Amino acid sequence: MFAAVGSKITSLSRVSFAGITLDESLPVGGWRYLTPEEIAKFTSAGKSKAGK
Fold first, then answer.
1. At a CB cut-off of 8 Å and minimum separation 6, what does 18 contact?
2. Using the 8-state DSSP alphabet, how is residue 20 labeled?
3. Is 4 helix (H, G, I), strand (E, B) or coil?
4. What is the DSSP code (8-state) at residue 35?
5. Between the CA atoms of 8, 12, 17 and 20, what dihedral angle is there, to the nearest 10 degrees?
């Protein structure tokens, strides 16, 4: 996407994904368990609302 407009990316950091902000203390390549609230966000995201 950036190359298409002549820009070169030399570094990239993901700070959030799907509305979940990553903790700054999480090391590169690290992981953590999702909280119950975060799991609920993911499981409800694919469900359609009644009448829509």
1. 41, 42, 45
2. E
3. helix
4. P
5. -140
- Sign of the CA dihedral with 29 first, then 4, 19, and 24 last: positive
- The percent of residues in the chain predicted with pLDDT above 70, rounded, is 87
Q: Phi, psi at residue 8, to the nearest 5°?
A: -115, 130
Q: How far is it, in rounded angstroms, from Cα 8 to Cα 10?
A: 6
14 touches 35 (CB < 8 A): no
| Stated pTM of the model | 0.52
Rg (CA), the chain: 16
Alpha helices by DSSP H, 1-52: 36-45
